[in-house]
């Protein structure tokens, strides 16, 4: 509905006396101001009287203003005359005239304009990293006249600010708290701030408070940062110098830690140069003690001053090199960490075979002796070619060494006379059959179970090493087995096992032995002392033993019959100067390089 | 600014969904089960309710004014206070008067007010639905207020029980007669009547809010409070 202004009689018609405004500051009192309008003759005090109607009952009447303040043309209603939520209507009365306007009716809460807040202050919150703008927190107190604490009035505030000497104010969001943050003021500019308030959800604002001024000049922020960066840089430099010093002084240790030595083939007393191609003879000479006292005593200590070098030592620990009856396990045993008939060297695995100048190196490379025995045995059994007769590889584990009490005994009763147990990886070729087969003798650990395996176990258990050795040897005499091996003449070659003894080592007396398919009964009564490779002669129940048989030997040449000529075993033809390799053979004393082999083949 | 506050208000109802101990009613209609909430907290919630109700009613009123009230009639709006339905209720009307009445009476006054307005607001809702161009916002607001008033009543009842150890009160104050008897003959237009209703309710909502806040002041600090 369009509101059409009444014809403006403003100019011509006189303006009646009217009320200019009625305001309450704290909802407990209020005052009204009037104006005589254009009726100037009514401007004198008393010419106009104020009447009000308080509509709190149907029978209410007009009453006169309780308190005049003529100087202001003001009518003041004190606490006793002020009622909230009750409509008031105001009237101006002259002599005989009543000037009444409908819109001079109100309820007190609707005319409340709170006093402005007081005690304005500001604090600097922060400055942006660029140093161009900053934030400020403004605090103030509510108007003292407003009873905000009791909850009589609920007030919200509006902050306005502007740059000095500008005209437009920026207003922030209204909120009921007595503090507020102004963001994004610019450094170097002055700002003016003032606040006004009103009752929450009402429409009339109070007056603005007095202004406060915010001035933030350029703070020399760089100064505070310069020392900081200097300190930082100096600190870093110092730390770097410290690290360099540590590295330089502890170079050796750092090298140990950072670059642990790679186990390289370094044999104590042997120049690694010899291990290179083409110098085999020299190496062999050295290793076999050629002419000198023997390996350990002879060799210049090449690596003495390199503590981080690990040595694979040929084992001279107990110096009983003459004892073939060995406490050394066979190669395989050592590798597998199996217990072996060693009286006091029950060090399994690493600690027995290899010693290092440095304590904490190389252990990891050793075979873990904790593997269950049976796994290894199975492994061995599967690796080695089974007997032709044997359908399955069954194995026994027999308690040999007292130390390894954990060994469980698995007995496999087989029909066959032999079972493969605990065999070495390598077997000595003990005989070559006319048919071309090669007879191998099993390793020391081979337990060949006869039907009396059960009794053997019982007897074997808990025995001393020597005893068990003897029984073992006895049994081994009865050992018979065969391996089918490729005919050496036809093709290929046998394993380079140290084919020891077999035939008549002492009789030959030479530096070689021949492998012939000969009955082995002419075997020399070998001493029972045995080293790692007690190869059992298969055919003869009397299979002796032998001179300590090393697992390997060097094939020097082939004779006219295409037999392999091997090195004499060290104790067979014992030049006193021959070193008993402590290692006795599992260590490849000599090995054939491909070019040597070429020399050997006819 | 107005729109912003309107939008803000539309989200406020979600804040109040759980604020009133409505679960009290589930125990066979008796309110004896509502001992889980502390009296202080309950009073705070009731106050918060009343504040919101006032704010929404004020906005509904201004909306209504803008939409439906012709400008000349707006000048008469202040006169509508005389025709309020609750003017017959005995109420303190100034700070000094409030200072003289007890907590109990204060609470009962609030309850009286609340219960008086439940039905008229429902009536208002039905009439406004018949308007041709009533904006949804207005309708939603009035609906919201109507619902919240019921929650407020429940809260006040519980508060009375907690604070004054009184039993359940019968709703003695919501009388249809109160509503009908004060219809002014000259206000025949439904618009005017509705507007009067709205503005009267707004006034009474402010009254409720103030009463409750003063009550809270008394609870916390007896000596400086009216």
Automatic annotation (TrEMBL), chain A:
It comes from the Eukaryota. It is found in: Cell membrane; Secreted. Residues 458-477 have a biased composition (Basic and acidic residues). Keywords: Cell membrane, Disulfide bond, Endocytosis, Glycoprotein, Membrane, Phosphoprotein, Receptor, Secreted, Signal, Transmembrane, Transmembrane helix. PANTHER family: CYTOKINE RECEPTOR, INTERLEUKIN 5 RECEPTOR SUBUNIT ALPHA. This is Growth hormone receptor. Belongs to the type I cytokine receptor family. Type 1 subfamily. One of its GO terms (biological process) is endocytosis. Residues 116-220 form the Fibronectin type-III domain.
TrEMBL record, chain B:
It is found in: Secreted. The keyword Secreted applies. Its main location: secreted. InterPro entries: 4_helix_cytokine-like_core (IPR009079), Somatotropin/Prolactin (IPR001400), Somatotropin_CS (IPR018116). The keyword Nucleotide-binding does not apply. PROSITE patterns: SOMATOTROPIN_1, SOMATOTROPIN_2. Pfam families: Hormone_1. Residues 1-19 form the signal peptide. Keywords: Disulfide bond, Glycoprotein, Hormone, Secreted, Signal. GO terms for molecular function: growth hormone activity; growth hormone receptor binding. GO terms for biological process: animal organ development; growth hormone receptor signaling pathway; positive regulation of growth; positive regulation of receptor signaling pathway via JAK-STAT; response to nutrient levels. One of its GO terms (cellular component) is extracellular space. Belongs to the somatotropin/prolactin family. This is Somatolactin alpha. It comes from Amphiprion ocellaris (Clown anemonefish).
